[in-house]
Amino acid sequence: MKWRYIVLTIVLILIILAISYVTLQKKVETVPITSPTEPTQPISKERIVAYAYRDTITGIDPSIEFDTGIVILSNVYEPLLYYDPIKNEFKPALAISWNKVNETAWIFNLRKNAKFHDGTYLTSEAVRFSILRSKLIYEEKGIGPGWIWDCLEDIFIINETSILFKLKYPAPIPLIASSAYGAYIYSPNVLRYTNASDMMDERIRLWFEAGNDVGSGPYKIELYKPESEVVLRKFEDWWGWDIVNNSKAPEIVVIKIVEEPASQELGLLDGSIHIAINVAKASINRLLNQGYKIINQTTFHNYILMFNAKRWPTNITDFTKSSAICNSMGQGNRVCFSRIC
Fold first, then answer.
1. The Cα angle at residue 104 between residues 103 and 110, in degrees rounded to 5
2. Cα separation of 338 and 279, whole Å?
3. Solute-binding protein family domain spans which residues (predicted)?
């Protein structure tokens, strides 16, 4: 009898131990596993500006592009001079002085501290290479704005920072050299980067269109998706930062392709963009009331009216002559823009 109690006691103890073990396992299994706290990423202090642009980018070869790529080129590259149409005066860009020798000769003196984005310095050879490439591509292939240099016979290098423009006929070289198209200067090292045989080699254009640059402007290209987004990064070695003296200049500029005015407005409202250039007029007062600001800038637009000389009535000489006279008097502009002015 005594042994029976002992056996029962042992069995009971084993049952209790088994139940305790199962319960303990369940508790262990339900305890969440925690990993060591991951260090948080430092918050970027870079200033970023998102700019909404309404058109896809048509190209970024500084010698060929003649359309919407100007929004990129004007920040990445620089001409020799800038022209102020309001004051009708020229301002130094990559050239610090320029003098007319005679009706067909001009001398330009270059900045000595200007750097390209590849770290090399601006030289007379770079100016000659850039301008002649624009000119020759147009003359041989018929593309780009190189026709602005039709007056140019050659560019002679006086020294590392001085050049002589020799013209075929009198022309306003300072005005041509300040053009927003076809007058940008870039490093001739592009020949080496692309293994090009000469300045006309197609590999140079393809290299540029792949999102590369060798400009001297305040920003350089970091990402190039012409149909959706372009990212520019601040070029710290730009010669002009001390002159501009803008401590709030953004480190990164994001150019977003946003075609619809409504989408640009939504981008402003949700904070995904900071600057919009194509918002519906009906929305402007509402945005002003919400604290947004409008900045009006005087910009230059060149509208070209083309006639089909093989079809009536524009194939009539008197018709085209009268149209030209009308347009020169400003009538053409008033007719074309009468519905939007």
1. 105
2. 21
3. 89-315
Instruction: For residue 261, say if its preceding peptide bond is cis, omega within 30 degrees of 0.
Output: no
229-234 and 219-225 as β-strands: parallel, antiparallel, unpaired?
antiparallel
The mean pLDDT of the chain is 87
Residue 319 located in a structural domain: yes
Please measure the distance between the N-terminal and C-terminal CA atoms of the chain and give it in whole angstroms: 116
Planar angle of CA 218, 221, 222, nearest 5 degrees: 120
Confidence of residue 308 (pLDDT cuts 50, 70, 90): confident
Dihedral sign (CA 185, 191, 193, 194): positive
Distance CA 230, CA 215 (A): 16
Contact criterion met (CB below 8 Å) for 214 and 187: yes
Q: What is the pLDDT of residues 163-181, one digit of tens each?
A: 999 999 999 999 999 999 9
**Are 177 and 313 part of one and the same domain?**
no
Domain-embedded: residue 56: no
Range of the domain at 308: 303-341
- Asked whether residue 16 carries a pLDDT value surpassing 70, the answer given is no
Domain count, the chain: 2
Average pLDDT, integer, range 291-318: 81
Helix orientation angle between 261-270 and 281-289, rounded to the nearest 10 degrees: 10
* All residues at 6 or more sequence positions from 89 whose CB lies less than 8 Å from its CB, including other chains: 83
In angstroms, rounded to a whole number, what is the distance separating the alpha carbons of residues 244 and 93? 12
189 lies in the same domain as 72 = yes
User: Tell me, what's the pLDDT at 29?
Assistant: 40
Residue 90 is inside which H or E element, if any?
strand 89-92
Alpha-carbon Rg of the chain, whole angstroms? Answer: 33
Q: Is 293 left (phi over 0), alpha (psi -120 to 50) or beta?
A: beta
Write out pLDDT tens, residues 183-221.
Answer: 999 999 999 999 999 999 999 999 999 999 999 999 999
CA 9, CA 15: separation in Å to the nearest integer? 10
